[in-house]
Amino acid sequence: MSSLLDTALGLADLVDSSLKHEIRAGYTHRFITLMFVTVGARVFCRRYTYGEPSWHSVFQTDPAGQVRLDKTLVNIEARVPQDLDEIVPDVDQAYADALRKLGASYMLAGATEPRARESTMEIRLAEPPAGTP
Q: Which H or E element spans position 115?
């Protein structure tokens, strides 16, 4: 990992400066495009489709995975934040700000509906397991 990504703030800065956000559960699943938002030095994502199986359900059983931010690949752990109830209003605001910036305010209702809120996951830096890229 580059020194830029040695801290949570480095990851948050990379998320904020990247145009394309992708995530995959584990190290062999395909990447899917998903919007990440930041609150301070913390990175979050939410579901916007609710079929199963999903990346979200895989992360609930094994938090290891990767994100691709533009062309930068980062090993992560994705978990439900321990302070979910407290952080949800800030994550809602981050989604509102990001969607307005993109001119996609019409998507805000879906991004902040109850099941989206309940699906909030926090993305943190992680080391890859031995033998993975």
A: helix 114-118
Cβ distance 113 to 50 under 8 Å?
no
User: Across the beta sheet with 121-125, what order do the strands follow?
Assistant: 32-33, 21-25, 64-69, 72-79, 121-125, 42-45, 36-39
The model scores a pTM over 0.90: no
- 57-74: pLDDT as tens digits: 999 999 999 999 999 999
Set out the domains of the chain in order of their start, with CATH numbers.
3-121 (2.30.110)
| Structure token pair of residue 112 | 């902040």
> What DSSP designation does 47 have?
-
Cβ atoms 120, 36 nearer than 8 A: no
